[in-house]
Design brief:
The protein has 7 helices and 16 strands. With 368 residues, the chain is of the alpha+beta class. β6 and β7 (88-95) form a beta hairpin. It is globular and about 60 Å long.
Length: 368
C-alpha cells in the first residue's frame, strides 16, 4: 500500500467524529474497542484492518447499529468483511470501492447489550478496510485473557475460495469467494476459545511461490516482519501478540508445478529446509516463549506429501539440541479433495481441517 496515500487519507478522516475517545494501539485493547490481527491505527480511533481475519470489536446498547467502512488502496476495488453479533455469524458485507459508506447491521438478538465484531474477510493483498466509527451507543468492553495462536500460511490459511454460497467459482473477482472468518484457523480458535492472528498470503511459499522462483515475488521470510505482509518494510509489525502457539503451514506452493506455462525448476529440498530453519529462528526472535507446530498440507498427497513430511522432520531435527525453546511439534493432515474454488477447501472442508487439529492443538496449549 502506498504510504503517501495513507498519510493523505489520515488528514482527510482526521475531522470525522468517532464514538469512544480512548486511544488504543494496534492489537490492543481500549475502554471501548478491541483490535486484533494486523491492523494500523490512523487517528481518532480509526483503524485499518490489514490481514485476513483482522478485527475490531465493540459493545453497544439498543437495536440500531450502523458502521462506517471503506475499502482503501491505490487500486480501487471492493472488499469484504464478516460480521459476528453476540457470538453468532450474521454474514459477509461487500464494502464497495470509493468513499467511506455507512452500512447498517441487522440486529438479530434481544440482548440489552450487544457485541459486534467486524472481521476482514479478504487478505492483505486486497488492500485495507478502514473502520471509521459507528452510530451505535458504545459501552465499555472487557476482553478476557485467552490462549493465543498465530497461523502462518498461504491461501489455504487465508480462506481463499472457501465461500461459494453467493458468488460461484469462476465468476466475479478472484477474491469474491474469500471468507477468512471460515478459514480453519479462526474456526479452530473459536472451538478452543483462543485469540488468533493470521499471517498468511495467497500463493506464498518458504523459498519460492506458486508460480515464481523467488525472482519477482517476495516469499514469506521476506514479508513476515512487515505490517502489511508485503515488500514495504517502512512499517514493521510490532509482534505484541506473543502467541502461546505458532502454527506454520507452508509448502503447498513450494511443491506446486505452477501454471504449467512459466518455467518451473524441480523442487529444491535443501533450499526449502534451509529457509524453513532460518524462518523459525525469526519467529523465535519475536516470540521466544512460543511453542511451534509444523503442518503438512491437506492439498498435497502421494510422493509430494512424502517429500514434504521428510523436509519438515529435517527442520525439526535441526532444533533437536535447542534447549532455549520448546520442542517443535509436527501434525500431518489426512489428504482431502477440496470442494472450493481453484482447488482450495470450501467452508465445510475448513471445518474438517479444524476438527482434525482440535485435540492436538488443545493438548499443546495445555502443556506446562
Amino acid at each position: 500500500m502506498n504510504t503517501n496515500f495513507i498519510a493523505l487519507f489520515s488528514l482527510i478522516i482526521g475531522s470525522v467524529l468517532f464514538h469512544g475517545d480512548k486511544k488504543t494501539s494496534a492489537n490492543n485493547q481500549g475502554d471501548n474497542f478491541i483490535y486484533q490481527g494486523r491492523v494500523e491505527k490512523i487517528n481518532n480511533n480509526s483503524v485499518i484492518l490489514i490481514s485476513s481475519a483482522s478485527s475490531v470489536s465493540f459493545n453497544f446498547i439498543g437495536d440500531k447499529c450502523d458502521v462506517k467502512l471503506q475499502s482503501i488502496d491505490t487500486w480501487e476495488h471492493h472488499n469484504y468483511v464478516s460480521l459476528e453479533l453476540d457470538g453468532e455469524y450474521i454474514g459477509r458485507l461487500k464494502i464497495e470501492k470509493g468513499l467511506a459508506k455507512t452500512y447498517p447491521v441487522a440486529i438479530t438478538t434481544n440482548n440489552k447489550v450487544h457485541q459486534l465484531t467486524i472481521y476482514k474477510a479478504t487478505e492483505a493483498s486486497n488492500g485495507g478496510v478502514l473502520f471509521n466509527g459507528t452510530t451505535a451507543t458504545v459501552t465499555e468492553i472487557n476482553h478476557q485473557t485467552k490462549k493465543k495462536i498465530e497461523f502462518i500460511g498461504n491461501s489455504i490459511t487465508c480462506g481463499m475460495g472457501n465461500d461459494i454460497k453467493e458468488i460461484p467459482c469462476g465468476t466475479g473477482e478472484w477474491f469474491d469467494q474469500h471468507n477468512a472468518y471460515w478459514a480453519y484457523g479462526p474456526i479452530l480458535s473459536r472451538a478452543l476459545n483462543a485469540d488468533f492472528l493470521l499471517s498468511s498470503v495467497s500463493g506464498i511459499g518458504m523459498y519460492r511461490n506458486w508460480n515464481d522462483e523467488h525472482i519477482e515475488e517476495a516469499i514469506m521470510p521476506d514479508v513476515y516482519e512487515n505490517l502489511y505482509l508485503n515488500k514495504d518494510n517502512s512499517k514493521p509489525f510490532d509482534f505484541n501478540f506473543q502467541p502461546d502457539l505458532v502454527s506454520i503451514c507452508l509448502g503447498t506452493n513450494d511443491l506446486s508445478d505452477g501454471d504449467g506455462v512459466k518455467k518451473r525448476l524441480p523442487f529444491n529440498e535443501e533450499k526449502y529446509v534451509a529457509n524453513y530453519i532460518n524462518f523459525i529462528k525469526t519467529v523465535y526472535k519475536h516470540s521466544p516463549k512460543t511453542r511451534i507446530v509444523l503442518l503438512n498440507s491437506p492439498m498435497v498427497s502421494g510422493e509430494k506429501n512424502t517429500i514434504l513430511v521428510k523436509c519438515l522432520k529435517r527442520v525439526i531435527e535441526a532444533f533437536k539440541k535447542d534447549k532455549k525453546h520448546k520442542k517443535i511439534a509436527l501434525f500431518e493432515y489426512a489428504p482431502m479433495e477440496p470442494k472450493g474454488c481453484g482447488y482450495h477447501p470450501d467452508i465445510e472442508d475448513h471445518k474438517l481441517m479444524a476438527q482434525q487439529l482440535e485435540s492436538f492443538f488443545k493438548k499443546l496449549l495445555n502443556e506446562k
